[in-house]
Amino acid sequence: MKISEILKEIELYAPLSLQDSYDNAGIQIGDINQIATGALLCLDITEDIIEEAFQKGCNLIVAHHPLIFKSLNSVTGKNYIERCVIAAIRKGIVIYAAHTNLDNAENGVSHKIAQKIGLENSKILKPLNNYTVVKDIRAGAGVVGTLSIPEEEQTFLYRLKEIFHLKALTHSPLRTKMIKKVAVCGGSGAFLIEEAIAAGADVFITGEAKYNDYYNVEKDILLATIGHYESEVCTKEIFFEIITKKFPNFAVHFSNINTNPVNYI
After folding, report:
1. CATH of the domain at 162
2. Residue numbers of the domain that contains 87
3. For residues 192 and 130, what is the distance between their CA atoms, to the nearest angstrom?
4. Entry pTM
5. SS3 content of the chain, % helix, strand, coil (to 5)
6. pLDDT tens for residues 137-156?
7. Spatial distance between the Cα atoms of 5 and 144, rounded to a whole number of angstroms
8. Is 111 left (phi over 0), alpha (psi -120 to 50) or beta?
């Protein structure tokens, strides 16, 4: 089986046409026509990730965040991006990223978050092209759904900490309201705050937000941020489901490396 066959399945699930204009999803490095020996799944590409793939006999790395966003004028190893490019080429490893196309795909990142929280009747928060179907995929950013049983704000926030294994969770002032309707967006999702309010959500959960966002929500909604890495590490599970559904006997590995650049003391 060629690497290209695996990537075809990922792109059927999350077509590259769904990516945002600034993005650089897709093949980053390598020959996709070589026989696949194994796939390593991760959120970010680092030198340690490439070495881990090599040690596990994987010649394919599937990541959520692209390694290369901007054009490279030279590749001399002066930063981690260039060192990763050199290492991947030397080791014959293909690097592939499914980023905002996976964010916007049906059953993409925000849907996985909603599933973990236990939301019901989930729907896309901000549909692309007024909810048009793109290559048979109903696409858009964020998800809004409901809890089967309303929860007190603090109880809900502590449950989020447990679900996503958080060392810290930040939130705007509590509103002393029950949580019933929940809006979510993985990563940097603060651009959807207004949509979450318009949808009547009691809380909006995302990876990160700006300082003033916590002021601006005022009493319209509770804003909770769980960390960019923590909100999107679930992409490994999505990749695993896509690949193993089509190729159940293929060697697929979750990376054991925590690539979160944010540390807590």
Report:
1. 3.40.1390.30
2. 3-99+233-254
3. 15
4. 0.93
5. 35, 25, 40
6. 578 999 999 999 999 999 99
7. 33
8. alpha
CA 26 vs. chain centroid, Å, equals: 15
Q: How far is CA 83 from the centre of its chain?
A: 24
Domain count within the chain: 2
Query: CA 46, 47, 50, 52: dihedral to nearest 10 degrees?
Result: -100
Query: Kind of pairing, strands 170-171 and 140-152?
Result: unpaired
Distances (CA, A) of 116 to 14, 22, 170: 20, 29, 19
Structural tokens at position 206: 């995302």
Here the contacts of 164-169 (C-beta below 8 Å, separation 24 or greater) are 164/116, 164/226, 164/227, 164/230, 164/231, 165/230, 166/226, 166/227, 166/230, 167/264, 168/227, 168/264, 169/224, 169/225, 169/226
Give 123's strand partners: 144
Report pLDDT digits (tens) over 84-133: 999 999 999 999 999 999 999 999 999 999 999 999 999 999 998 644 45
Considering the domain architecture, whether residues 110 and 92 belong to the same structural domain is answered as no
Structure tokens at 29: 């490095």
Pick from 76, 86, 54, 80: nearest CA to 65: 80
